[in-house]
Amino acid sequence: MPNQSADGATITEFSFGGIVKTLDQSIVGEQQFSFTEGELFITLQGQVRFEPNRDLDHSASEDIVKSIVVTSSDFDNDPVTSTVTLTITDGDIPTIDAVPSVTLSETNLADGSAPSGSAVSQTETITFTNQSDDVVRFRLEPTEFNTNDALKSNGLAVELREDPQGSGQYIGFTTSSSNVETTVFTLDFNSGTLGEYTFTLIEALDHQDARGNNDLSFNLPVYAVDSDGDDSLVSQLGVTIGDDVQIMLDGKLDIVEPNLADGTVTTSIFDVMPNQSADGATVTQFTYDGQFRTLDQNENGEQQFSFTEGELFITLQGEVRFEPNRDLDHKLNEDIVKSIVVTSSDSDNDVLTSTVTLTITDGDIPTIDTVPSVTLSETNLSDGSAPSGSAVSSTQTITFTNQSDDVTSFRIEPTEFNIGGALTSNGLAVELKADPTTPGGYIGYVTDGSNVETNVFTISFSDTNLGQYTFTLLEALDHVDGLVKNDLSFDLPVYAVDSDGDDSLVSQLNVTIGDDVQVMQNQALNIIEPTVADLAAGTPTTATVDVMPSQSADGATITQFIYDNGAVITLDQNDTGEQKFVFAEGSLFITLQGEVRFEPNRNLDHTLSEDIVKSIVVTSSDLDNDVVTSTVTLTITDGDIPTIDAVPSVTLSETNLADGSTPSGGAVSQTETITFTNQSDDVASFRIEPTEFNVGGALKSNGFAVEIKEDSANPGTYIGFITDGSGAEIPVFTIAFSTSTLGEYTFTLLEALDHVDGLANNSLSFDLPVYAVDSDGDDSLVSQLNVTIGDDVQIMQDGTLDITEPNLADGTITTNTIDVMPNQSADGATITEFSFGGIVKT
């Protein structure tokens, strides 16, 4: 309002963005009004200015435009308006002052060589300066990142994106040919602390090839964004990632060469690459003692490589072990040592090597299992007492076990033979030497005073059958006089030699050379104990055995013997026939020439065993006092059991019992004598077998089955009894064998037996099973003692009753009394009925 007019117009009001404000007409200076965009100053005279605020919202447009409609009025109330257009242009973009860099190492990744055990990350804070508008966030610009694809992970270009959009969280990732995404790193801006960010490394990045543990740097384009959404100028967030390199270690594999029993053995596993690094190193190749081998990079398990010394197993991850073969050549050294140089490479082509020293120690020496002994006799030499007419030799085969190496030969050690010179021939010490004309052959020899060598024996090992040897006796060896077993034994020290030339432990080949002495042999005499009939027919005898089939050139004779561990019994050296010696078991006959037989007695005690066995140790001696013994085992088997010839039967009657119809007034008994024949042993007693009596219970007394038992108070006496309904035992009969007259017995009837009903005075028969028992306790065959018991019947007699008819004065009169059953019998008869004039009464 450059001119207020003559009517003195003033500004009365204005509207700002539609908001009406009224001026105070009493204030002559600037009047201030506050709005979101700033402060409006206006005077009554129409002077207008504006002081804008900062950090205004220019997100919709670069300019904020406001319309200020100003109204004036004069004294005539003439209103006039004008419009002031306010334009506030967006101010300066924010300024990033500093972006701290990030430095991390792949070694700390979970699959790195020195894993940290936590996230591999770094947190920093960007410093910045707010300008016209406040900074509200930071962002990365994916389109400006890795524009030339130089940054790679696992050979794939790393890309960047915000995920999710607007979150302030960014991921660096790769995409495989199969469209699989792999997150390589993340960067997260802290929503609570403006400018703070955390960079986290997740996967290894590709470093320059073959530089070892080098660094890789790249930039992330960072922008500060103000409240209007305006970016600052870009600032680069520098990231440096240290390369990771695999760890390779030298090591050793030690093992002993295995033997056959071990089967497949292996060293422990050594890890030459305990950490493959974040770049995923693998073993690519190795050399074994200079031999180059390459690993299959597609094979995840153990890869097997064969060498002369065994099997090498190695994995891409660096685990190495070795399975040695057996029968390896250790001739030059106790240890076979091989160098294994292992090479690894990672995805950055960082190559490292390590050396594994394989040591295979020579294993077990061979084992000699058995060395069969040699037994020969000087008697078979051409000048012996029984020349064989051929070489006096023995061929045997040593059994052995190959251990770590195979046995290739056997040898004898001359320096260990006959130390002390105890073995002599013709008074000269026997020595041993290798036969210069026969490989594997050895000669035992003596050297006399004139230095002449005489061969005593030879031993040679077969060149076609490993372990087979032949020992040949050529001359007699000196024996000691008077030894019980006139043999001479000595040892030859034998070694098995393996393919490395290693000896086994020594084993002794024992050689026994028999002196030219009598031949004694063990024998057996077997016979059955004779019977009386055998003795009557002649004297039974065993066969004759010869305990000394050869008396030797020194004229041996039987000098003595021991019967059943008893005293020594000497033979008469002047008696050329059989010499007789009597013992409890019988008579022994023996000759000086070693013929032995035995005539047994009968009635021998076989109670403990079916056989009586006696040992007869026979001793012989020759003119050199060479004593030899043999054992004759005499076995006398228990002979025939006794024979019962006849068992007289018993016949008794119940009428003679005390309550019978004609009591005898004494015991109702019968005594008889069993006749028998003694066989190999004498009869000592007789017995009845209760379990074989009245089987089925047919024999009864008073309706109860009769049993039998031996009287415990009187051995040899048996009681036949019944048990009534109240459990009381009632003796029915007894039978007692005499203790003074062998075979005599007495049968006594005590109570009546139940006969067949209604047959009157009939008989009842039953058997008692009788055995004869000999002195050995052996039973004869059973014989039955037959018992016949006659039934008893009551006695009935007729009678007469005479009487005169009474009168009234007589009263009651009676006849005399007569007894129609004077004896009721042993079976207890009673009157059951009568008839009177044809009328029956019960």
From TrEMBL:
Name of the featured protein: Uncharacterized protein
InterPro entries cross-referenced by the UniProt entry: T1SS-143_rpt-cont_dom (IPR019959)
